[in-house]
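Feature request, filed as a ticket because there's no other form

It would be nice if the structure record came with a short human-readable summary line next to the tokens. Right now we just get the raw output. Example of a typical job, pasted below so the devs can see what we mean:
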Amino acid sequence: MKVKHLWLTLFLGLIASPVSAEDTLNSGDTAWIIVSTALVMMMTPAGLALFYGGMSRYKNLLNTLAMTFVSYCLASVIWMMWGYTLAFGSSKGGIIGGFEHFFMSGIDINSLSGTIPTYVFAMFQMTFAAITVALVLGSIVDRMKFSSWIVFTVLWVTFIYCPIAHWVWGGGWMGEMGALDFAGGNVVHINAGIAGLVLALVLGKRVGYGKEAMFPSSIALTVLGAALLWFGWFGFNAGSELAADGVAASAFMVTNTSAATAALSWMFIEWIATGKPTVLGIASGVVAGLVAITPAAGFVNLPASLIIGLVSGALGFFFVVVVKHKAGYDDSLDAFGVHGICGIWGALATGLFANPSITEGAAGFFYGNPGQLWIQFVSIIATATYTAIGTLIVIFVTKFLTGGIRVEHDDEIQGLDNVFHGERGFEIM
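Raw output as currently delivered:
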């Protein structure tokens, strides 16, 4: 009997603790992240391309689409060659990842990241790199050389996006400090917004800016793009849990609520201020709310998402309609006003409203941890400073390599669709 009990004990021990759940592939999680990856992929060459393309002038519509598409293509290749390892390789002093996964070496079909294949995780993260650099484009449409944009994209993804992604998500110093960024407040939106502002200031204003009307080519396309961005953002935020669980469900819910609340906030403020609730304003409000909830999505509850959305709609309107025109800078499609400013608000709001009942260990100011707000503030300042200085360096290297980054005056007047692509988005009679 003692021998039988011994074998039974050994058998139960073997089946009880062979590997942890973290090391076991979960088909449900894997399926969800594959779907989320596809949703986020759609956000760049479909959602963002239409959103930005519709807001650009008719003579630059195709150029805007082309620059968005090429951003996705370049980021896709860069990420698999060296971007992934720089962001998620073994940390070198908390600053950058090692080169052990150069060209995805050391990873195969059996490699896991948590409960999903590493290939799926790498693809999911790649879509974030792609949309981040594409967001920068919104500040400078109508006036940057296509060749310069290509060089800028390669350099910026490598030297700006990858280090910041490592700091926050790849085992770097910012994550170790305790900064909370669920789906990309620092990594995506503050990063892109600050970079866009720097690039816009270096390029200068568009010809005729502030002196002539610059009508969007198609607000209908912009609204369609905003709807696709909203749809894809469910993968962006809920997918960032990297599991099909309750936190993902909560992120799904608060993402939609913040977007809807921000759209209403922007609409009513604009209605009161100008007498007309524009469709462009409603669409912009949606994006502002999505941006602001991004860093907080997996940490906050429903009431907090209502506040985050309400404030982001107001902030977006104020910076896009009031501050930009008073300051006089030409942020063409308001990448800084929407992504930079609302990203900063979202990061701070995470420090205020992070609720430990949503994600254990993540507590903000209103849940007994005032230090979290300071940590969020430090992360914002560090991201903005590195991005601003780094982007400036990337710009001057790009200038050197391409002989200047701004299009010729006559080309700008003629329109970049014809100059660079020999095509037209619309046939003007």
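Something like this underneath would help us a lot:
The chain has a mean pLDDT of 94.
The chain is about 70% helix and 0% strand.
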